[in-house]
Amino acid sequence: MDLKLNKERQAALKRDYKEMPLLSGVYRTKNEKTGKVFIGSSLNVTARINRHKAEFAFGSEKIPGLLDDWNKYGEGNFTFEVLEVLDGEYDSDTALKEDLVLLEQM
Predict the structure, then answer these.
(1) Per-domain residue ranges of the chain
(2) What percentage of the chain exceeds 70 in pLDDT?
(3) pTM of the predicted model, to two decimals?
């Protein structure tokens, strides 16, 4: 019976995740030891930050220098922060992406 509860709980968590609103915006990854900063934007910043963390963990991060710093200084010396979230309705992902690029450049 515990297995059934776990499956039900797992299904509920998956459903809740899929129903979460997407946060489109700009985020920052910072090495607190060196002060190095990477600014990025995404249609789903929460998922993008989680992807960065997973890529660090698996050693497949593609941002130059960050993986080396992650390995050298460790996870505890990195912070991830959502800097700005775009609000409003967009007619297309293209229009949203254009605004994200402008926001990232500010």
Answers:
(1) 27-105
(2) 85
(3) 0.70
